[in-house]
Amino acid sequence: GAGVSQSPSNKVTEKGKDVELRCDPISGHTALYWYRQSLGQGLEFLIYFQGNSAPDKSGLPSDRFSAERTGGSVSTLTIQRTQQEDSAVYLCASSTRQGAGSAFFGQGTRLTVV
Amino acid sequence: GQSLEQPSEVTAVEGAIVQMNCTYQTSGFYGLSWYQQHDGGAPTFLSYNALDGLEETGRFSSFLSRSDSYGYLLLQELQMKDSASYFCAVRNGGSQGNLIFGKGTKLSVKP
């Protein structure tokens, strides 16, 4: 596609439920990033995929969070047993291997846990 | 580890020039990037400096001093639409490492 696509754009879930957030990166981009952003705050790094290398999971806040990337393309971020503090906008970005500092972001998924 | 420091807020008037600073600490430096984010929107890439000096793109310029671990984003001829948050970012631990962002500077442009 023309840009990074994320779905759903909005998700309201009950505390304790599991949620899956999807990211479809720009075709040909080998790097894929997930970030979390609370209202008025910065971008908190979650996880990073680069080609066939092992993902950098150092930003995942707890073992309730996991992500996978299938076929070097689409990625799914899963949050199990959601808590109210998980409410935030989840942003996905992708870049080429030679993309240096330029990553392209999707519009994000706004997650609300009630 | 990596850390980036940015002032939290800056206010300027339309037509003026504003400079937003970023200082960083990182192991293995691979360039400093700048992103713009309007309220409710996604971050968009503005500029990237791998080497010392000034990079200019229209009204936007970005500067880097590797010896001082310091960079800034300069906006000229400010417009109301420039009101947004501006984030600096560095690669973490390698040229193919993930991108770590500062907490951002919220720029408010007044008429």
Number of helices of chain B: 0
Fraction of residues in H or I helices of chain A: under 10%
Largest sheet of chain A: 6 strands, mixed
- Model regions low in confidence, pLDDT < 50 over at least 5 residues of chain A: none
Give the end-to-end Cα distance of chain B, rounded to a whole number of Å: 41 Å
Biggest β-sheet strands, sense, barrel of chain B: 6 strands, mixed
Structural class of chain B comes to: mainly beta
The backbone outline of chain B, from C-alpha atoms, is globular
Strand fraction band of chain B? Answer: over 45%
Work out the number of β strands of chain B. 11
> What is the C-alpha radius of gyration of chain A, as a whole number of Å?
13 Å
The shape of chain A is globular
* Greatest chain-chain contact: A-B, 24 and 25 residues
Query: How many helical elements of chain A?
Result: 0
Whole-number mean pLDDT of chain B: 93
Strand content of chain A: over 45%
Structural category of chain A is mainly beta
In short:
The complex is a heterodimer of chains A (114) and B (111). Chain A is mostly beta strands.
Give an overview in words.
The complex is a heterodimer of chains A (about 110) and B (about 110). Chain A has about 110 residues and is mostly beta strands. Chain A has no helices and 10 strands. In chain A, strand 4 and strand 5 form a beta hairpin. Chain B has about 110 residues and is mainly beta. Helix content of chain B is about 0%, strand content about 55%. Chain B contains no helices and 11 strands. Chain B has strands at about 5, 10-15, 20-25, 30-35, 45-50, 55, 60-65, 70-75, 85-90, 100, 105-110. In chain B, strands 2, 4, 5, 9, 10 and 11 form a 6-stranded mixed β-sheet that branches. Chain B has a 5-stranded antiparallel β-sheet with strand order 1-3-8-7-6, with no helix packed on it. Chain B is globular and about 40 Å long.
